[in-house]
Design a protein that fits this description.
The chain has 87 residues and is mostly helical. It is built from five helices and no strands. 64% of the residues lie in helices and 0% in strands. Helix 3 (49-60) crosses helix 4 (65-78). The longest helix has 18 residues, at 2-19.
């Protein structure tokens, strides 16, 4: 259970960072940008924790990756089961 709590706290922190992103127009990916499809795994809390933390820090400062992570987080937060909705 402590692992779940830690992941929840990380997700809340990421959501706060993402909410503060204000991008006027999407930017082109830079040389250090991960592949676009990797952001869904980060948003879901999958993969290596150290790598995910580095990616989160990158997204917080990248006009290309920040919106991708924000979108992935929104997609995952919109997917709730009927059981979750009735709680």
């Amino acid at each position: 259970m402590p692992d779940c709590q830690r992941r929840l706290e990380q997700a809340v922190a990421v959501n706060r960072k993402l909410a503060s992103l204000q991008i006027a127009a999407p930017a082109a990916p830079g040389k250090l940008c991960p592949e676009d499809d990797e952001w869904m795994n980060v948003a879901a809390g999958l993969g290596n924790e150290g790598v995910s933390q580095q990616m989160l820090e990158h997204a917080a400062n990248c006009d290309h990756c920040g919106p991708l992570l924000k979108e992935a987080t929104a997609v995952l937060s919109d997917e709730s089961s009927a059981e979750e909705k009735s709680s």
